[in-house]
From TrEMBL:
<keyword id="KW-0805">Transcription regulation</keyword>
<dbReference type="Pfam" id="PF00440">
    <property type="entry name" value="TetR_N"/>
</dbReference>
<dbReference type="InterPro" id="IPR036271">
    <property type="entry name" value="Tet_transcr_reg_TetR-rel_C_sf"/>
</dbReference>
<dbReference type="InterPro" id="IPR050109">
    <property type="entry name" value="HTH-type_TetR-like_transc_reg"/>
</dbReference>
<dbReference type="InterPro" id="IPR009057">
    <property type="entry name" value="Homeodomain-like_sf"/>
</dbReference>
<feature type="DNA-binding region" description="H-T-H motif">
    <location>
        <begin position="34"/>
        <end position="53"/>
    </location>
</feature>
<dbReference type="Pfam" id="PF17940">
    <property type="entry name" value="TetR_C_31"/>
</dbReference>
<keyword id="KW-0238">DNA-binding</keyword>
<keyword id="KW-0804">Transcription</keyword>
<protein>
    <submittedName>
        <fullName>TetR/AcrR family transcriptional regulator</fullName>
    </submittedName>
</protein>
<feature type="domain" description="HTH tetR-type">
    <location>
        <begin position="11"/>
        <end position="71"/>
    </location>
</feature>
<dbReference type="InterPro" id="IPR041583">
    <property type="entry name" value="TetR_C_31"/>
</dbReference>
<dbReference type="InterPro" id="IPR001647">
    <property type="entry name" value="HTH_TetR"/>
</dbReference>
Amino acid sequence: MAVQTNAERGRDVRARLLAAAQELIAELGWNGVSTRVLAERAGVHSGLVHYHFASLQALLRQAAVEAMRPLVDGTAALLAQSPSPADAVESLLAEIDRYTGTDPASLVFIEAYLAATRDPDLRDQMSGLVTGLRATLAEALTRAGHQAPEAAAITVMAVVDGFLLHKGLDPQLSAMRLAPMLRRLTDTNGAPS
């Protein structure tokens, strides 16, 4: 069995801390995560939190953004693979129905959105992800000949975010109920001018 190098051990500790932070943000809320609880969950000494990250907040920021990035990238991939933006949005809605609004991924998003209202660094990082995805949708709508691509992209993204908040309050909601309305909004044949 190969012995881990210091760099490999460091990467392993960072990965464990980030995974533990994502779990704890969902379980305890952003402000409920302490260095001690985080270190215990990750199975490391609490001093390693500050050795690997400038602060607990820096670790939480990175954990939240890393949790969001695959979902954002997956949505961008849906846009690239779908025959039309309207089809991509419908596929996105089908994916969203996998989330309950109270599942760990949804809770990390919700907690991060709230924390971003008070943390300019987190707000900047999340803004980069959200505006990038919105721009990708607007570009797809522009290529498809939509008459108001930016407005449609802003509306779709706001509806998706709002839906996830509502689903946490009413788990019976289905994103697919929004499909006809969002399809009309993103359809290039009948798009508003």
